[in-house]
Amino acid sequence: MARGLILLSSPTSLSANTLLSSFSKNPSTSFKLSPFSHLLHLQKPSSVSSPCCFTVCSSSSPSSQQCSIDMAKYRQVFSRRMDMAGIKPHHRIALGVSGGPDSIALCVLTAGWKTAGANSVGTDSSGFIDGLLAIIVDHGLRAESKDEANIVRNRVSQMGIRCEIANCDWPSGKPKQGHLQKAARDMRYQVFHDVCAKHQIGVLFIAHHADDQAELFILRLSRNSGVLGLAGTPFTSQIFPMHTHSYCEVPANGGVLLVRPLLEFSKEDMYKICRGGTEEWVEDPTNQNQLFTRNRIRRELNHLSSSAFKSELQRVISACRKTRAYVDHVCHSLIHQAVVIKDLGYAVIDLQILCPSKIEDIYLLKFLSLVLQFVSQRQRQIRGSALKLLMDYLRTIQCKNCITAAGCYLCPDPGSKGSRVLVCCSVDIALPLKMEFSETCSFRQHEYHVANELEKIIEDEKSNSNHLVLDASDVHFLDANPESVLDEAKRLNIISEPTFNSILVLQKQETNRFRSKVGAISDLASKHEVENATSSGNSLQPGQCCYFMDRFMLTWKLNDKMDRDVLSDLVDYGMDLSGEARNFCCTSCVVGRDQVLEVRHMIESDWLYLAELSRYSPLENSANGNTKMMEKTASYLHYASVSAKKALVLLKSIPVAARRSLPVLINQQGKLICIPSVNFKHCPCLMVHVEYKPKIPLGGGHSSSRIPDGSGCSNCGKPLQPTMKLSTQFIDRSFLV
Fold this sequence. Notes:
The chain is of the alpha+beta class. The chain has a domain at 552-692. 40% of the residues lie in helices and 14% in strands. The chain has a six-stranded mixed beta sheet with strand order 7-6-5-8-10-9, sandwiched between helices. A five-stranded mixed beta sheet has the order 3-2-1-4-11, with helices on one face. α6 packs across α9 (293-303) and α12 (361-376) packs across α13. The longest helix has 37 residues, at 497-533. Residues 1-53, 61-66, 245-252, 440-447, 520-537 and 705-737 have low confidence and may be disordered. It comes from Medicago truncatula (Barrel medic).
C-alpha cells in the first residue's frame, strides 16, 4: 500500500497503468480521499500510476448495468465449493483481507453465503455476521500502513463483517529488498494463524484465484519446478504455528484449515463480483512495480489475454493437479504401509514393503519429502538435490551405511540387516537447535469446540469424495522431467503450438532474470535464517514451558513433598523415608531451589554419567564415610542411582541415533539433572513433564480440493496412525477448475 487514496465512482477514462485491463472497461472518476479525514474532496482526475498512491475503487453504474452481472452464478459456484469442502454457514471462519478486489470479492461471497439459505446465520449484538472475522495484516513496513489498514477496516465493517487489524512484529528487524516479499508472506500467514488461535477459529479463507495460479505456473516453470510444483496451490491445505503461545488452544497439532474458494474464478470475475455487490475496493499501485517477479509475469500474461491462451494454460495446470493428486494417493498409501512413527520423534521405514528399486522416481521423491519434513519438522517440504541423494541411498547402498541430509540422519535399524532404515532428526546441523518459550503451559488434553468443528468438516469432506475414482490411464506427466512437461502437454493436445511458444517465451525471460539474481537473494535468505535461529536462548525457569526442536513440550518444577508413586518406588528399593532424610533429599540436591535449568539434546557423556551413577552403592559409601551428613547425602544419591538404572534399561531399547535428539535438563554448572523421556531425574521432588507434540503432521496436513464436475480420485486419506496419533491426511483434487 502507498500514500493517499483515490475513490473511483463515476464514468471517466482512467489510465491503464492504474488498474488492470479488465477494470478499464468500466471507467470511473477520481476523488481525493485523505486517510486523516472522513470528508471527500472533488478534484480533477489525476494520474495514479505513481507508486505513492493507494486507490479506492467502486462502481456507481446504473442499476440496469448492475443487473447484467449474474451474481447468482457466482454465489451458486461458491456454495457448491463449500458443500464439497464440508464447510457450513454456522462454522467459525476468518478471512484474509487486504482491501483489494480479490479479498473484497471473497467478503461479498462469504457474507452472502453465510446469511442466505436455510442454514443461514444471523448477526450478533453489534450487528456483525455471526462467526465471521476479517483479518487485516499491517506489516508495518511503511509509515502509511496504519492509516490504510484503518480505511480497509471501516469499509469491510460496513459490509457487516467484524474486523481485526493485526500488526506484524519483526524481532530481527524489518526485511530488506530481495527478501521482502517472502518474509512478508511468511509473517502474514504466521499472523493469520495467531489470530485464528486467539479467537478459536479453525478455518481461514484466502482470495487466491485462477489468474494467481497462472502466474505461479510461469514462476515455477522458470525455476525448473517439476509437475508437482506446476500444479499450483491446492483448494485446501493447513498452516501450522511457527511459534508457541500461552493461548495456543487450536486443537490437536494446532493447524488451521486454509481454504481458497475462488480458484474457479478469474481476476475479471473479482471485479464483477465487487461491482455486483456494489462494494468498493482498493488498488495498490505497488502491484505495478516491475521489480517484483509476480508483477512482471502478471503484466506479460495480460498481454497474452486471448481466451484460447487462458483456457489452455488452465488446462495444463489442471492436468498437473490431477497428476499431483494421483502421486499423493500413492505416497500416502506407501506411508500407511511402510512407515512407523515412534513417539520419540523418529520414523522407521520398512524397505521390504517399500521396495524402493521398483518405485518410480516421482513417487519415491514425494514419499521421502513427506517423511523427512515430518522428522525434521520443517515448515516447507524437502526439495532438490538432497532428495535425489537419499533416493540413491535407498536404492543402491541398501542402507548399510549412514547419511545426513535435509536435517535428518538416516541409518540401518539395528538388527534388521539393512531391511529397515531409521530416519532421525539430525543434531549435527550448523544452526542452533530451536527452542521457544511461553510463560504458562497446560498439558491436559482439552476438547475445544473448534476441534470438533474441524473433525466434522473433515468427515463431511471425506464422505463427499468417497464416490470419486481416479483412472491411472488419465494421469499425465508421471515420467516427465521439468524440461519436458510442456512438450508432453503439446503432444497430448492439452495446449496448442501458439500457447506452447508463448509460455516458452515467458519461461525464458524469467529464467534469465532469476539466474542473474539468485546469488544475492540466497545470501539474504541465509542471513535472515541465521538471525532467526540464533535469537532464542536455552534457560528454562520453573513453571515455564519450552517447545524444544518443534517436537517436545517441556516444563519442570520442584514440589515440597514427594508424591505417593515416588515414595512407593523408594520403598521398593529400601531407601530411608524418614521425615528428616526426606526433607534433606529435597533441599540439598543438585537442582537447588532458586536455580534455572538449561535444555539441550542428549550427548554421549550423558550415557556414561548414567552408567557411573548406576554403580553407586549406599553401603560402600557408608563404610567409607560414617558421618551423619554423608548418610543424608546418600538419600538423594541412592534415588538418583535407582533412577539411572531404570533409565539405562529404557535407553537400551532406543536406537543410538534416536537418543541424540532427546531433550535433557542440566543445571547451570552443566551437570545432568533429568532425561524426562526415560524418566531419569536426580531428585524425587523434581517434577518434569515432557510430551511429544510435533507441529507438522506426517504428510504435511494437506486437505483434499474439490472438483466442480465430480471427476477426480478417491480419498485415500485414512488417519496415519502407526504408533502415535496423527492428523488425517488428504489429497489435492482441485485439478479441474
